[in-house]
Amino acid sequence: MQASSLLPILATVMAFALAIAAPGVPAQDSADTAIPADRLWSDEQALRISGASLEPYTRRLIITGQKFGSRRPPRVSLDGVVLSLSSAGEDRLVTDPLPANLVGSGTHALAVIDGSDRTRLALYQLVIDSLPTGGGRSAAPQANRISVIDHNGDVGVASSIAVGATGNPLILYLDYANRDLKLARCRDAACTGADLQALATDGDVGWANALIVGADGLPRLSYVDNTNKVVKFGWCEDPECRVFQARTIDTAGQAGQHTSIILGRDGWPVIGYYDNAESHLKLAHCLDPHCATFERSTVDDSGNVGWYTSMALGADGNPVISYFDATRRGLKFARCANPSCSSARVTTVDIGGVGLGTATVVGADGLPVIAYWDFLNDDLKLALCTRPDCARATLLVIDRQGAVGSNAAMTLGADGNPIISYHDHTGGALKIAHCADRACTDVRISVPDSNGSVGWHTSIALGADGLPIVSYYDDTNKDLKVLHCGDASCNGAAP
């Protein structure tokens, strides 16, 4: 990541590495102390943390050091709370966004434990004197703000939102009138205005798009080229995506729909998608940052499966995927056994006319949460997995007032609890459901926009100020709109 895109909060006070001795062997005082080979110590260099910094806008912790381990991702904790990782390498770890209550000023205990050898660990004392403005703490309650971002023609279908390196959102979407893939670069954290750019204009492109921003601040995306019926991966050469490149991932006939993208534990892109020709769920694991080489896997071929894919990084550092099984009309979940997902445990989470539209996140406890539409009953549902493979889950109806739950998207709030954006077909409105606790026993539902037929094709992210920000389609006016919530539940009345 460029230095200008970060305000690192570094602490180099009392950094030290510890090693745990074999029975009867005392621990050493310093990681630099030589360990005699005959005392049953590994001849590997000690696992060591050399530095840690916190991205103020995304609240991701970046840890540098050595010998973090590559066979299995290490276990990382801050003040005793286990953190999920967005990428992991031998000398660099990047966590998912941290809950706001873990990143306040003061002294924090950071620990990294080798995933394959739990006797190898390192500790680091992180001292945060102060947080910069917008450094992950939720702002005081304020009014919701709704902005029309693009109104030039029929725009805003299939939007995907992510927070850029500057703390301002980026929105990827389809210009339906021109069949172009477009990007909106918001001018502020609330996205009250944006600069618009067409990324791809060659043919009918931009369908089924998905967007992420890496720890280096550079956007990556996946989308479908409908003219050539192929899945494409695109990347930006700069944080604002003024220079854009793309390449084809799958060229088989009718190759792709319903794409989703994440960064693997190695920091390289992973793209999940539905193969329309074979009616299977597939995954492409890139072997470099620009996906010049990649390996493809068929994750599930048991019928017509793979619609509405949504991916996240599991607690073990491998992808997890929620998707719709059109053959059995159910919600399915795949837990990959390796980064390329050449082997996966596939489970059926719910059946009976459910799973059209899925959204997956993995909580700080390492357990997946899936939001989805029960289209038989027209309800919004939530699956709280009680195991990492989601073989067991608690199923909840979150909203049953009218015909609701389609176009669901989800993120974790500053409190670490799910926030879901979705469409209310009965009211023609955008709705937000915020779980006030991890078990979602207390759910706060708001209707921040009901002006016409709105709330289609929603995408949600946590903004630089710790408040939800939602992109969506206004079907009445054919516009791309953005909601910046005034509080975690989006209950603030729009001005």
Description of the structure:
The chain is mainly beta and 495 residues long. It has two domains: 126 residues, Immunoglobulin-like, CATH 2.60.40; 340 residues, Methylamine Dehydrogenase, Chain H, CATH 2.130.10. 0% of the residues lie in helices and 51% in strands. The protein contains no helices and 37 strands. Strand 4 and strand 5 form a beta hairpin. The N terminus is likely disordered.
**End-to-end span in angstroms?**
37 Å
How many beta-strand elements? 37
Percent in strands: over 45%
Number of domains: 2
Mean pLDDT: 85
Q: Spans with pLDDT under 50 lasting ≥5 residues?
A: 1-44, 132-139
Coarse morphology: globular
User: Helix coverage percent of residues?
Assistant: under 10%
Rg, alpha carbons = 22 Å
CATH topology title of the largest domain: Methylamine Dehydrogenase, Chain H
Tell me about the biggest sheet?
Answer: 5 strands, antiparallel
- Name the structural class: mainly beta
The number of helices is 0
What is the CATH class name of the largest domain? Mainly Beta
The CATH architecture of the largest domain can be given as: 7 Propeller
- Give me the CATH superfamily of the largest domain: YVTN repeat-like/Quinoprotein amine dehydrogenase
Keywords:
495 residues; mainly beta; Immunoglobulin-like; Methylamine Dehydrogenase, Chain H; 2 domains; five-stranded antiparallel beta sheet; four-stranded antiparallel beta sheet; 37 strands; 0% helix; 51% strand; disordered N terminus
